[in-house]
Amino acid sequence: MPQNPQPVLVFGATGQQGGSVADALLKAEWPVRAFVRNPAGDRSIALRDAGAELIQGSFDDSEAIRSAMQGVRGVFSVQPSSPGGTVTDEEEVRYGIAIADMAAESGVRHLVYSSGSAVGDEPTGVAHFDTKARIEAHVRTLPITWTIVRPAVFMEMLTMPGFGLDEDRFTFFARPDQSMQFIAVADIGKIVAAVFADPDRFGGRSFEIAGDRASGLDLEALFTEAAGRPIAYSRFSEAVLAANPFLAKLTALLDAGPLSGHADLAALRRINPGMLTFRAWLAGSGREAFAKALGTKGAWVYNDA
After folding, report:
1. Which residue of 194, 235, 280, 300 is 20 to 30 Å from 166, comparing CA positions?
2. Start and end of every NmrA-like domain (predicted)?
């Protein structure tokens, strides 16, 4: 943490990514300004009690955003995406571009934008990722120090209802012998905090972030070990993929390569030596969510914010 630091403005501070960033910055003794929709909500109150300054507003409230950016050193930008059902693709792009523009206009020293692991130079054909590519492209044109992080699939996502853990099975995108990268949400915050602490090192860089790589068979072994009983792994059936175009596109993107992840795990551990492996996450911060998933039925709802 620099001496006499200005605050970092965190968007999505009551969500998964923004919450992890706010938590990591606060633990590193950075002043945090949290942009929240409802300051009376439980997560907002927890942030306030942890030392964050709360600023009320929405992504549509340009006046509140500009005001929140006054006097800040950095901005962490993340937006909800269309698979979550709260915004359209065009709204996500509009919000991401507007925040970046206002950060540059307000003289913010460092903008960190959270994108997605499958985003690259070529369109993916999946709007969820291609919206982020459009925001990335705009960020790179601005007169501001910027860093783009591209998180892998969240470990937490695998404990959501609908994947079959309540029936002693687990169904996901990968073939049994096919691997992909994952990250614990808390590690997103720790990496971003390190990025804000060293803008000279990380400015102008785009990079994927992940904590581990696991195949379908690896997940079967890890979940069996954590559950204390057999958990059988399988890939989504053709019938399921035919009925869910979004899942089908993600599965095809994994087969094509971009969604499998290409983060440099060794380099990331040098930035954050405590980066969690899947086994460590299941034994620690993920234990409660995994135990709950073993007994919870329901349908899968995408959430990456």
Report:
1. 280
2. 7-245
Order the strands of the 153-154 sheet from edge to edge: 153-154, 179-183, 212-215
- Side chain identity at residue 31, one-letter code: P
- The strand pair at 179-183 and 153-154 is best described as parallel
- What's the CATH number of domain 8-152+184-209, 3.60.110.10, 3.40.50.300, 3.40.50.720, 3.90.180.10? 3.40.50.720
For residues 70-89, average pLDDT:
90
> Could you tell me the pLDDT band of residue 4, with boundaries at 50, 70 and 90?
low
Q: Which two tokens stand for residue 154?
A: 């969240």
Is-above-0.90 flag for pTM? yes
> For residue range 49-64, what is the model confidence (pLDDT) as tens digits?
999 999 999 999 999 9
> Is residue 296 packed enough to be buried (19+ CB in 10 Å), middle (13-18) or exposed (0-12)?
middle
Domain residue ranges in the chain: 8-152+184-209
Q: With helix as H, strand as E and coil as C, how does 85-139 read?
A: CCCCHHHHHHHHHHHHHHHHHCCCCEEEEECCCCCCCCCCCCHHHHHHHHHHHHH
157: number of Cβ within 10 Å: 16
Strands 179-183 and 212-215: antiparallel
Neighbours of 138 (CB within 10 A): 16
Query: pLDDT of 195-221, one tens digit each?
Result: 999 999 999 999 999 999 999 999 999
